[in-house]
Amino acid sequence: MKPEINLPRTEVLESLSEQPPGRLGTTQWIVLIVACLGFAFDTYEIVILPLVVRPALIELGNRQPGTGEFNRWVGLLFYVPLAAGGIFGLLGGYLTDRFGRRRVLVWSILLYGISAFVSGCAGSPLMLLVSRCGAMVGVCVEFVAGVAWVAELFPNPRQRESMLGYTQVFSALGGVLVAVAYYVGVTYGDHLPEIRGGHQGWRYALIFGMAPAIPLMIIRPFLPESPMWQEKKARGMLKRPRLSELFQPALRKSTIVATFMTACSFAASFGAHLHTSRIIPGLPQVRDLPRQLQEQTVSIVELYSDLGNFAGRILFAFLAVRILGQRRLLRSFLVPGVIIFPLVYLFPARYDLGWFKIGIVLSVAAMTGQYSFWGNYLPRIYPTHLRGTGKSFATNIGGRMIGTSAALVTTQLASIMPGGNPSTQLAYAAATVAFLVYFVALIASFWLPEPEHRALPE
Fold first, then answer.
1. Which of 161 and 334 is assigned the larger pLDDT?
2. Is 228 within a domain?
3. Which pLDDT tens digit goes with each residue over 189-205?
4. Residue 185 to residues 7, 10, 28, 51, 208: CA-CA distances in angstroms?
C-alpha cells in the first residue's frame, strides 16, 4: 500500500488553486447573471437619489435649494438610509454566513424592490426617508451576499479575480439605467400613468428600481447555494460566525485598516461625486434654462458619470490579474484620485459644462476602481465562516455608516464656503472633502495587509 500523505489544508488549497480555470457551467452562469443583476441595481438605488432629491424636496415640502431646511433634508436623505443599511447590512453579513448566500441574496433583492416602489409613491419627505431606508438595507445586504457567492464559485485565483472584477462592471450599468430612467421620466412622464395625481419624472425613476425583483422570482428555483459554504455545512465544519473574531490577532489589523480605507472610498463618493447633480444647475450654461431642460442636462451628465464608472470597473478587472501586489493595485486609483477630484470640483464644476463632463469621467473612474478593489480584496482575507461578516463589517460599518457621513459634512461645509451662490459653495466643499479623504487613504494604504495566500482562506 502507498503511504498516505496528509498535506496541510492551506497547501491543498494552494494546489487546487493552481489548476487551470475551467469552463463556466450552467450553474455558474445562473449565479453570475443574478449577481450582475443585483450589482446593477445596487448602484441604481444609490445613484438615483442625487438626481431626484432636488425635485422631490421641491414638490413634497416646497423646500427651495440653498436654504438651511433644504440642505438639512438633503443631508438626512443621503446619510440616514445608508446608516440604516450599514447597521442591518452587518446583520445581513452574519445571516449570510449563518444561513447561506443564496437565501439572503434573494430576500434582500425583494426587499429593495418593494421599497423602491414605495419610494416612488411617497407623499412626504419623511415617507421618502423611511422607504429609502428599506431600499438601502436591501442593497447593503445584497452586495455582501453577492460578492461572497461569486468568490466561492471559482477556486482558481486568476479566474476568481477576473469574474469578481467583470461582474462588478455591471454596477456601472446601474448608473446608465438611472440616467435613462430619469430622462424618460422627466421627458415622457406625461404619457405614463399618474402617480399620486401627477406625472413627476422623479417618481417613475424611483419605481423603476423594483425591476430586478421580477426576473428574480422566475429564476429563484434554479439558484444554487455556494458550493464551498454548502460543503462545509454538510460536513459539520461550518463554525458559527462571531463578530469578535474579526478583532482576534490574526485578523485585527486587516479588519481595522480595510474598514478605515473603505470608509475613505465611500467618503469620496458621498462627499463629492454624489453632489454633482446639484452643482450642474448653477453652471453658466445651465442656470438660465427652463427647469425641464436643467433636469435633462443633469441626466446627460449622469451618462458621462456612467462612462467613467464603466472605465474604472473595466480598468480594475484588467489590472487585477496583472498587478499581484494589492497595495500597488489600490494606489493605481488613489494617486490619480487625489489629483483629479479636487481639480474637477475647483474649476470646471464652477465654469464650464463641457470640461466638467470630461472631469467627471476621469474622477469617477478613479473612484469606482476602488469599489471593485474592495469587492476583490475583502473575500481574500476572511475564512469561509467569516467571509460575509468580515466583508459586511468593512463595507457597511466603514463605508456606509462612517464614510457616507461625508455627505453631511459637505452639505454643512457648503453653508460657510465662499462663492456667492449655492452651486459654487457646494463645489468648493466637495473639492475640500475629496482631497482630504483621498490623501488620508493614500497614507493609510502603506498599512494595508497583503493576503497570505492566493487561494481563498478556509
1. 334
2. no
3. 888 888 887 888 889 98
4. 61, 54, 36, 12, 10
The span from the CA of 417 to the CA of 426, in Å, is 8
270-323 tens-digit pLDDT: 899 988 988 998 898 998 898 888 888 887 887 898 889 889 988 998 898 788
Q: Which three cell numbers stand for residue 443?
A: 497614507
Residue 110's domain comprises 26-220+245-447
How many domains are contained in the chain? 1
User: Which residues make beta-bridge pairs with 198?
Assistant: 195
Burial class (CB in 10 A: 0-12, 13-18, 19+), 41: buried
User: Does some domain include residue 205?
Assistant: yes
Judge whether 269 and 395 are in contact, CB under 8 Å: no
DSSP-based three-state secondary structure for 39: helix
Q: Which residues pair with 195 in a beta bridge?
A: 198
CA 223 to chain centre: 23
In which band, very low, low, confident or very high, does the pLDDT at 128 lie, cut at 50, 70 and 90? very high
Residue 195: φ, ψ to 5°: -125, 115
**Rounded distance between C-alpha atoms, residue 159 and residue 279, angstroms:** 41
Question: What CATH number is attached to the domain comprising 159?
Answer: 1.20.1250.20
Distance CA 173, CA 170 (A): 5
203 in a structural domain: yes
**Grid cell listed for 314:** 473595466
Q: Alpha-carbon distance 251 to 174, whole Å?
A: 33
Residue among 273, 372, 268 at smallest CA distance from 316: 372
Contact 48, 206 (CB under 8 A): yes
Give Cα separations from 162 to 30, 118, 191, 278, 419 (angstroms). 17, 37, 43, 36, 45
